[in-house]
């Protein structure tokens, strides 16, 4: 049975469209003078310098902000927000600007508050593995910092070279290691957050356990900057595994892929750290646009399996037994294994660069769906049938271990007729199977009005109450996450 | 530097004391008639039957409720709360009543809402391992149900034979497997909750990933029934490990115990599922009161290490290498290993029954502290010096892997002078080392006014706003979790 989705305020016809501008103040000369005194040389108004901050990575959403602020300290963020809240100026917090749902760029003229200069590690405890750092640290820089100390970050994703840890936490990023290390709701131990009115909320604990009152930090994980600006993070980091292996396999059907997954969980057990897949269409795009080479014979489906463990001999033995099993039972048609870092990286890049390959196809309609794992590829096949020749390409890839499909539909350029054929069809399909219409990307601007496909209206109303409580003027990342009838 | 702890409303002098009764209505004959119509035969008013529900497991806190309600369905819980909210009747939700901070019994005459008849498994998916069940399922029953299906619960604790999963989630229970499977904030995938006014909030998702709006379920995890009554839970369950081993070891100093832990994490890595400790005083109590036998030579410290993995040969090899290392380097003085279920259970029961042994000592002052792991036993030793002959026994045990100490101080009977010597000393000590004054037990009635030792006042104020938003009349579990100046 389909969930109701009571969009109002004119959003019924085109729930993906931009909403009307809310009555925030405009930035005045006095405001600029205040910012320039607070952030000398870090108050950017040059339109050329602002350009890349006004548009998202996919170049599908563009705002018109005239001010970019680059604070270095929590105190500066606090003063900025206090001023903006008093003056009723809207603010768009921005990390690495790698989001895929238009959550990290302004919709109109919101002031962009960038965390790019808040990039310091504060402390690292090499006994407990607890890292505390500013929100603007780039994920890959943190990974490198930790690798030198024999630890790793509990999350990894394709955008690691640009994304900020504060943005990762604000969007509750999933990525490639969730299967093994769990979600940020478990690994983030503490947050420092500046609230809309400039109050600093210090919940920057570095404890694995703390049951003293409500866990306020959870409100800010995954709320996409609409409830507060995360300025610092403490996070529990796993030890660097002593042995890492990657297997790249081909399967002739999705059913066989699922059986391979079941077999893999049983035989690799606790050393399994990733089970990812992409389809043959993705491989074609990798070959065509990025000149990558398929390391095995052509197959309808490709799998990347990673193991991470503490004993190389044991891990290889487990992996080889598993490979023997899936080869002899013909679940897998061909495969290759890597234990050496360069080759591991090369195999991973096939999976990680699918998103990039897609950007060369023209316009991409992106969907990030959670479903019961048995159903995830049915949606791709159903969509191919449903769209026929209208779409250039319908491809599927994602995180099998998490039941998370990235469904991508390409077209030479933006195509309203194609969009109308995809939506709400894709959301209705997902809702019918009790899936999530945003598994890990968040709702941002693009998906905000589709929230009712995955959440009951009582829940959305309560989200609105929380927003009103923490940000009564609605200055923080307006037009994002919550549907138009709530803003 | 000590945190401020601005208790008001007369609680400065004795912050552990019961607060004055708030002006809730008294239960009338009409209320009872309503309950009896709604819950025929399940509206309990017989004082004898109410007795065990009015007093906590430790027999340290006792209420005077005259009504115990035993709903079977969410709809019944909804109708109860709607009625109570309209009538301004206070409600104390109760699961297995195994809590240690007086959170699960009424303080005055609150109506007890028991989940004991809400004990049905709703669904279990043996591909994903996702279990959905009513809140009143006993943890051990769920464990047995899952074991038959080759899965396990992601949490385990000494009270498993009585505690309810709803209570576990409401208190964000930690327990013995947290080191391996993480906290309930990561493993709980969905909740159904009845709000104070009777509205049913259905967030009972069964997806590993879902980033559609704010994660409302987190508000109810660990809020001890003060924001809503959890009626159903969906939770991600790990596969049953193919091999389990337990090692029981002795150490001659806490420093050596810590070095053993570091060595263990390196050598056992991903198969380590628990690292627990207790001291020689605990062992004496186990021998004296429960007639348990120490399986190894006497030592100042005892360790229980559990491994859980997918390959018995590999696991035993890792464990033996580790044991060889810690024996030859003299980190460990003596030890024994179990691979067989009965012996494993016997070794575990030494650790699990310390709490029970303590109840035979007279009155026990219990503290559940998180600290940087290097510091956890310093607190026990410091406390022994500080209290001298005033205490009968000062013992320490707990979860080394989580930096979680259970500090227990016994006395022949309640002793105000002893209490005055312990508190606020123990909280100041913890605060000075940035620890948590309640790692996993919650605040309940007993610790509510000490929250400021672990949380800044801005955070506590925000908790008060959340409480006011969700339960404006304050009927849900009053006098618990939040300090008196917030109620």
Automatic annotation (TrEMBL), chains A, B:
GO cellular component terms given for this protein: mitochondrion
Cofactor or coenzyme needed: FAD
Catalytic activity: (R)-malate + A = oxaloacetate + AH2
Biological processes annotated in GO: malate metabolic process
Assigned EC number: 1.1.99.39
GO MF, one example: FAD binding
Compartments reported by the entry: Mitochondrion
TM annotation in the entry: none
Pfam family, one: FAD-oxidase_C
Annotated region described as Disordered, given as residue ranges: 1-23
Limits of the FAD-binding PCMH-type domain: 60-240
Highest taxon of the lineage: Eukaryota
Keyword tags: FAD, Flavoprotein, Metal-binding, Mitochondrion, Oxidoreductase, Transit peptide, Zinc
Function of the molecule: Catalyzes the oxidation of D-2-hydroxyglutarate (D-2-HG) to alpha-ketoglutarate. Also catalyzes the oxidation of other D-2-hydroxyacids, such as D-malate (D-MAL) and D-lactate (D-LAC). Exhibits high activities towards D-2-HG and D-MAL but a very weak activity towards D-LAC.
Sequence similarity: Belongs to the FAD-binding oxidoreductase/transferase type 4 family.
Protein name in UniProt: D-2-hydroxyglutarate dehydrogenase, mitochondrial
């Amino acid at each position: 049975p389909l969930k109701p989705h009571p969009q109002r305020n004119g959003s019924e016809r085109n729930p993906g469209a931009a909403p009307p501008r809310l009555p925030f103040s405009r930035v005045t000369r006095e405001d600029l003078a205040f910012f320039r005194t607070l952030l000398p040389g870090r108050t950017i108004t040059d339109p050329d310098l602002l350009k890349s901050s006004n548009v998202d990575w996919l170049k599908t959403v563009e705002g018109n902000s005239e001010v970019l602020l680059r604070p270095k300290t929590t105190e500066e963020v606090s003063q900025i927000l206090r001023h903006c809240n008093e003056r009723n100026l809207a603010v768009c917090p921005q990390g690495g600007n790698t989001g895929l749902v238009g959550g990290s760029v302004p919709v109109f003229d919101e002031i962009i508050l960038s965390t790019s200069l808040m990039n310091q590690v504060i402390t690292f405890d090499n006994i407990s593995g607890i890292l505390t750092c500013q929100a603007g640290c780039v994920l890959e820089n943190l990974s490198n910092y930790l690798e030198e100390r024999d630890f790793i970050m509990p999350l990894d994703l394709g955008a690691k070279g640009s994304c900020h840890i504060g943005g990762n936490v604000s969007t509750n990023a999933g990525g490639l290691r969730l299967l093994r290390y769990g979600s940020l709701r478990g690994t983030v131990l503490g947050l420092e957050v500046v609230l809309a009115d400039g109050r600093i909320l210090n919940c920057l604990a570095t404890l694995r356990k703390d049951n003293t009152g409500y866990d306020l930090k959870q409100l800010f994980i995954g709320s996409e900057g609409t409830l507060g600006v995360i300025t610092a993070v403490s996070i529990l980091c796993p030890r660097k595994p002593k042995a890492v292996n990657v297997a790249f396999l081909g399967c002739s059907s999705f059913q066989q892929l699922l059986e391979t997954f079941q077999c893999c969980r049983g035989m690799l057990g606790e050393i399994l750290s990733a089970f990812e897949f992409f389809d043959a269409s993705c491989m074609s795009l990798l070959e065509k646009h990025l000149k990558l080479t398929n390391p095995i014979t052509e197959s309808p489906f490709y799998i990347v399996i990673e193991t991470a463990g503490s004993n190389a001999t044991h891990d290889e033995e487990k992996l080889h037994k598993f490979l023997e099993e899936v080869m002899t039972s013909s679940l897998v048609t061909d495969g290759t294994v890597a234990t050496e870092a360069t080759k591991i990286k090369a195999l991973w890049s096939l999976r990680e660069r699918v998103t990039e390959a897609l950007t060369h196809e023209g316009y991409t309609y992106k969907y990030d769906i959670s479903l019961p794992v048995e159903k995830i590829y049915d949606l791709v096949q159903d969509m191919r049938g449903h769209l026929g020749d209208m779409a250039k390409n319908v491809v599927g890839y994602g995180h099998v271990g998490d039941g998370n499909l990235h469904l991508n539909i390409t077209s030479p350029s933006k195509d309203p007729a194609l969009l109308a054929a995809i939506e709400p069809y894709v959301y209705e399909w997902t809702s019918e199977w009790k899936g999530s219409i945003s598994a890990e990307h968040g709702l941002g601007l693009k998906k905000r009005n589709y929230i009712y496909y995955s959440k009951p209206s009582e829940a959305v109303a309560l989200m609105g109450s929380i927003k009103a409580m923490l940000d009564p003027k609605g200055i923080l990342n307006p037009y994002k996450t919550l549907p138009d009838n709530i803003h």
